């Protein structure tokens, strides 16, 4: 166990490490060449289209030559604090703003708790001094002198600890209540002030029954016309588009090659690019690349439009899922919240997630399979959490030196070298564990996908829950009690329920120094690493050097990433747990937690403003989980404190603690009743108010046109976008330079309600309400033939525009 | 421990006891004088208005003189089986029919299980014979030779037991699934074919917010007009009518005295009855009783109409609860299932229970208090279940001889008698326990009332749940493990979780004989006592002798009672638990269970057809609980079998059982998803279908008139009924004799949609939809002044009719 001095040294080292990261960040971020790594969000919002330059020279385009800026290396901090919360909501979305509130909640809970604990408990602990006298016999650190370990058994001083635990719990609950209230109100306000969006009017219906002789659209149409006659508007069938998705991918590849060769030709206009048609371009006939790919794309577009037609027409490829739209928010809210059919496994309705939040692959899972899937995954998660060492041990046993020699005998001379041997022996087993922990979030996400949730946001929340269990058992309990989780489970099964908190409680104060070190290494240094974005930085520059062929590729190489809620939130919850458990036991841990929360808040605020671009908007749907797990941490801390006090034979005072978990649980129940519905359901009052307000401002609204294909599989949109982008790219590029605002609107429209710009929208807003299926098909054929023509036109125009456009751009960038 | 012979003897004794009960029942039921005790249901349905007579003589009116009927003493059994299920539903309600299905479910589960267990396990157990050889050392009964105890530890024969447990679980789940499916379909069908009833159109809204300057009706009206504009019809406010209820009670008393004196006068028409006005009629002024009570009633009616007016006008007496009616079932279903307000603690909507199912006192409980109440009751139930011996021991310590002497010193000489002393010493402590167990269901019901549920059916279900927990811990576990529940809890807390099933499992086979005796005493004899109805029989005859003054009183003295679900269903579930646990362990218990189920089925079928009159109709809402607790029993049996086998060191076979609880739980989850919504929510599809069908048959329906005061507090109806009955009793009595069908309709109308018959209904269908409160009040004053006049008229008419009517009746009965 470390003394205070050791921890001081460790803190200094970690602070120095974090400081180095920050210096590196300060230098790297002001280089224009890194601009797309550290400020991608501004490119995406359209506020910036090329790196800021301090100098007009060529070198100034890549390196920052204004040396003054190097000395203000922390000025990103005040910059990060400048933006107000409402601006963050507008700029980065509601989820990001709410995510930041987790950190401020941590600060608000732990700052007064630290003052209280350090002010009251540390003097009490120090003055008690059992360990002080036993020093020579026991190996006891200075830290333990400040912790509850220092208090003599049966001491009446434990009343102080219990009192502080009560105060701390009340304070934490008060802050939790205030925050839940704020977040719930903010969410309702956000929903109320949101612009018209398709998800407000749409309900996803699963398990549409298969009525023989009726197609899915007919069944749906009839059902909703009967049961929601006043508000039903139209619906969007969901297609099994796997084959089509493959074609779209291939076409994109062709398009990239085409762009590449055109670019190559422009750089070397005297030499026409040629390529071979065979495998990987290694053999086969020599052809003119540009002509070849143009031809290929044309053929592809034809076969794609055929396939597209086939998918949309073939009723066998239609899944028993549909997006039903209503003419009012009220109608959609009613349909989402009610039970439709007398068979509760049919016609399952729920509010539709926003289009970009949908995980299309899971839409077709039938009801009975969902129960089985959840059971299987539940059992798997249990085994993963408690027995995760078994597969790793297995891999480790394979990945030892003998195994390596067997698999790759030619490596034998190398492996036999002493240096390499010892390195491998130390390294391989650890590597297996590292790889496992690294892929764990992905594995958990895949498990959640198997469970069959249809929204990405739900999937991430489920994965986060699993990750939290894993960390709770393996990081928290696993560090406190030596041995694997499986061994713990086994020993818990053979202990009495009252013994378990005692066993854990006793070890808790002894592990304080370990967790302080953990907070510094994983928390402080980890966050400093987060702001440096080493991985995206390296990947961006590698891509820039080797892969970027066109400006579009550069756009693609710019990877803003997103706050990975499924990993970040559980980690954060672990810090909450540590703070809450140690607040009373070893209060000296609290300052470290506070520094972590403050630093992480600044860093994530900066990252959210400048870097990350969230994939979807769940309107803070993760808050109930954040709240619930902090409550769970409170309960764990109370239980462990009870166990700890019981082991200290503080029989007078321990029973006082029994009321606390009951109060905490009731508080949780109350909050659940009071606030959770705001995150689950759309209240009719709000829906009606918004409907009315809209009707007054826009009485002549053609809702149907807006909603018709908002929920078309994105794969169908991507084809349209492809066509569209090629036809309109020339104008768009210019727009970007002149009026950034226009670009913003454009972008948002594309991601939320993609409107195709080819022809009038009415052309592919299929006549859903028509009762005859033939009409339906006809409308489709018209629209797709229209596409074909439109594409022909646009691509010839494209060729014409292309040369001048790309050329100008090329000049602009590299001259 | 008993041998097979002992059990045989015990069975014979119990069979003989049950036989005696049945003989007594057979004799008593055919006496005309007991007709209202054993066949009250037929009086209530109107099929019978006077006892069946076999003989025209005066004696024949009281005693059955047809001696042939005495010899067919079991002929109630085939009679009970005659009625089909659909007839039972029509005759006794849906709840009763579903209640009977619990017994048939028991028969269906246990009959094949018995064949299997007796056919397979008993030979296996007998052939194993450990105990057979150890006979001399161990005190082992013959029953144990047939049980699992007889199998040697580590024997591979346990595979048979595990196999049978698997088969039995699968069979039980299959039957449970089928039955749940049947019941859910029957319920939906019943709801779909039900006549128009107010609860189909009504939603109960709790926590109406208090908006300053607006009265509750205004707020409600505005809210629902805004948020449910298309379907909102009207609403019924709820008043705090405690004072008025008191007046109603007093008036009823006066009315009874009035009736009594009138009757007296008729019997002795030459002597006018007089009475004193003072306390208990012991002193004070002598007055003409008839005149005096007539005057009193008149004054009372005046002050009642004033009070009534006051209650209905005073906005302070209006509770923040209201019954909101819609013009369609669809509208009501939508409102009940959706969230109304952005504050989820306001405007809480749920489907209204039927009017006679409402527990009015709980309607005013605010939301925050509900959480606290549930918490307090939850904790209390926990203590009641585990520490119920403490208050009893306390009472017992008071109720010993010394305590009695202290409290009542004058009893000392009596108590000092040896005989009395020993009797009291043996009797008093037991009495305290008996009284406690006797009042327990009532206590549990009161606890449920404190929890704040607003429907009687819910209250009973909650009380049943608590009773089940009590019996599970104190009867089942308490019998298996010696010691009080508290001692068990203490020992469980100090045992490891894997040790608990082992501890219980080991004792299980040893307690088989106890439970067999329990089944015979509590089950067989208890059920035979049930059919005899000793308590109602005695009370009816006592009332008949001393209290019955008028024919109306005789009607009142006839107490059909009702199936007390809150006591019967948990007891039944205990039998299921016993059967399921012992099916594999001691299969010889199964025949006893089967006899119980068969016999109880017959008895309850008879009682439901001839006696009981349910207070309300919950449409089988208790079935999910029945299903859930049978599943819980399966889980308990699996766990205990695992513990038992572990203690038998059957290490090869025990792990095979681990899968079974997981499968059972998933089955339960699936059933919950699949069937439970049918018991919770009214599907929109059904609502719409029923609305449409009704609109076609009755296009010009005045819904508002039907619904206007269906949900008026019954206290207000009772006043109207009082008035009504006095005015229309003369015609009604005759109707009863001539056309029983008319009477049926009349009765049903009264209990479900009470329609007042004074004046046209429109008079007190207050103008709810008017926006000005003044209009509201005026309508009221009109209606109540109307009442006053109507009453005057009716009571004078009443006097006129009374003499002839009562006189005729008197003649008819007693001459």
Automatic annotation (TrEMBL), chains A, B:
The keyword Calcium applies. Residues 200-362 form the CSC1/OSCA1-like cytosolic domain. Keywords: Calcium, Ion channel, Ion transport, Membrane, Transmembrane, Transmembrane helix, Transport. InterPro entries: Csc1-like, CSC1/OSCA1-like_7TM, CSC1/OSCA1-like_cyt, CSC1/OSCA1-like_N. It is a multi-pass membrane protein. Residues 791-804 have a biased composition (Low complexity). Residues 7-179 form the CSC1/OSCA1-like N-terminal transmembrane domain. It is found in: Membrane. Residues 768-787 have a biased composition (Polar residues). Residues 731-749, 805-815 have a biased composition (Basic and acidic residues). GO terms for cellular component: membrane. The keyword Transport applies. Residues 722-815 are annotated as: Disordered. GO terms for biological process: monoatomic ion transmembrane transport. The chain crosses the membrane at residues 12-30, 109-134, 158-177, 375-399, 419-446, 467-486, 574-604. Residues 373-645 form the CSC1/OSCA1-like 7TM region domain. Pfam families: PHM7_cyt, RSN1_7TM, RSN1_TM. Belongs to the CSC1 (TC 1.A.17) family. This is CSC1-like protein. It comes from Cardamine amara subsp. amara.
């Amino acid at each position: 166990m470390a003394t205070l001095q050791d921890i001081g040294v460790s803190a200094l080292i970690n602070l120095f490490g974090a400081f180095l990261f920050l210096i590196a960040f300060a230098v790297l971020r002001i280089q224009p060449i890194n601009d797309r790594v550290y400020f991608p969000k501004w490119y995406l919002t359209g506020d910036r289209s090329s790196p800021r330059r301090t100098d007009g020279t060529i070198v100034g385009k890549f390196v920052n030559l204004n040396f003054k800026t190097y000395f203000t290396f922390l000025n990103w901090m005040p910059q990060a604090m400048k933006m107000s919360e409402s601006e963050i909501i507008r700029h980065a979305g509601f989820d990001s703003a709410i995510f930041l509130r987790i950190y401020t909640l941590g600060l608000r809970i732990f700052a007064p708790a630290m003052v209280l604990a350090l002010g009251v408990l540390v003097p009490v602990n120090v003055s008690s001094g059992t360990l002080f006298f036993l020093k020579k016999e026991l190996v006891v650190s200075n830290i333990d002198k400040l912790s509850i370990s220092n208090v003599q058994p049966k001491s009446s001083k434990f009343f102080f600890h219990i009192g502080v635990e009560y105060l701390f719990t009340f304070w934490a609950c008060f802050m939790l209540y205030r925050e839940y209230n704020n977040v719930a109100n903010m969410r309702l306000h956000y929903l109320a002030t949101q612009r018209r969006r398709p998800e407000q009017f749409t309900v996803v219906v699963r398990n549409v029954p298969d009525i023989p002789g009726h197609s899915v659209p007919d069944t749906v149409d009839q059902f909703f016309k009967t049961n929601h006659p006043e508000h039903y508007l139209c619906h969007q069938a969901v297609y099994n588009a796997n084959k089509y998705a493959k074609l779209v991918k291939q076409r994109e590849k062709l398009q990239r090659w085409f762009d590449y060769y055109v670019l190559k030709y422009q750089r070397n206009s005297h030499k026409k690019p040629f390529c071979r048609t065979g495998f990987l371009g290694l053999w086969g006939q020599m052809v003119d690349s540009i002509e070849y790919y143009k031809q290929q794309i044309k053929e592809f577009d034809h076969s794609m439009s055929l396939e597209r037609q086939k998918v949309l027409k073939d009723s066998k490829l239609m899944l028993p899922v549909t997006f039903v739209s209503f003419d009012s928010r009220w109608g959609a809210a009613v349909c989402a919240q009610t039970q439709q059919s007398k068979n509760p496994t049919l016609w399952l309705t729920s509010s539709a997630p926003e289009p970009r939040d949908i995980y299309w692959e899971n839409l077709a899972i039938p009801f009975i399979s969902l129960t089985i899937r959840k059971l299987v995954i539940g059992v798997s998660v249990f085994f993963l959490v408690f027995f995760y060492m078994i597969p790793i041990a297995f891999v480790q046993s394979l990945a030892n030196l003998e195994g390596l020699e067997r698999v790759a005998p030619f490596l034998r001379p190398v492996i036999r070298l002493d240096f390499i041997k010892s390195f491998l022996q130390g390294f391989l087993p650890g590597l297996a564990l590292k790889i496992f922990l690294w892929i764990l979030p992905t594995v958990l996400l895949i498990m959640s996908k198997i469970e069959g949730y249809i929204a990405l946001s739900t999937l991430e929340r489920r994965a986060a829950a699993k990750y939290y269990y894993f960390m709770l058992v393996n990081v928290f309990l696993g560090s406190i009690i030596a041995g694997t989780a499986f061994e713990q489970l086994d020993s818990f099964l053979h202990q009495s329920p009252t013994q378990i908190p005692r066993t854990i409680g006793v070890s808790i104060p002894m592990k304080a120094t370990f967790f302080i070190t953990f907070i510094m290494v994983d928390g402080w240094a980890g966050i400093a690493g987060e702001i440096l974005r080493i991985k995206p930085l390296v990947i961006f520059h590698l891509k820039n050097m080797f892969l970027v062929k066109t400006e579009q590729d550069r756009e693609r190489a710019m990877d803003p990433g997103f706050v990975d809620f499924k990993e970040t939130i559980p980690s954060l919850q672990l810090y909450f747990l540590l703070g809450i458990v140690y607040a009373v036991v070893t209060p000296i841990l609290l300052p470290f937690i506070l520094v972590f929360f403050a630093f992480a808040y600044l860093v994530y605020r900066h990252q959210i403003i400048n870097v990350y671009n969230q994939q979807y908007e769940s309107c803070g749907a993760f808050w109930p989980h954040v709240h619930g797990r902090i409550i769970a941490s409170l309960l764990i801390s109370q239980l462990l404190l009870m166990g700890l006090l019981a082991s200290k034979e503080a029989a007078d005072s321990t029973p006082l603690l029994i009321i606390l978990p009951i109060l905490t649980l009731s508080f949780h129940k109350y909050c659940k009743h009071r606030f959770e519905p705001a995150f689950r359901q759309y209240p009719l009052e709000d829906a009606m108010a918004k409907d009315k307000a809209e009707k007054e401002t826009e009485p002549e609204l053609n809702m149907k046109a807006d909603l018709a294909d908002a929920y078309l599989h994105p794969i169908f949109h991507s084809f349209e976008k492809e066509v569209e982008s090629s036809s309109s790219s020339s104008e768009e590029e210019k727009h970007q330079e002149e009026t950034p605002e226009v670009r913003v609107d454009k972008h948002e429209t594309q991601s939320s309600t993609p409107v195709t710009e080819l022809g009038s929208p009415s052309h592919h807003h299929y006549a859903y309400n028509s009762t005859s299926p033939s009409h339906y098909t006809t409308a489709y054929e018209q629209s797709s033939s229209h596409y074909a023509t439109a594409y022909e036109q646009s691509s010839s125009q494209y060729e014409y525009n292309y040369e001048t456009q790309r050329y100008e751009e090329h000049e602009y960038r590299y001259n």
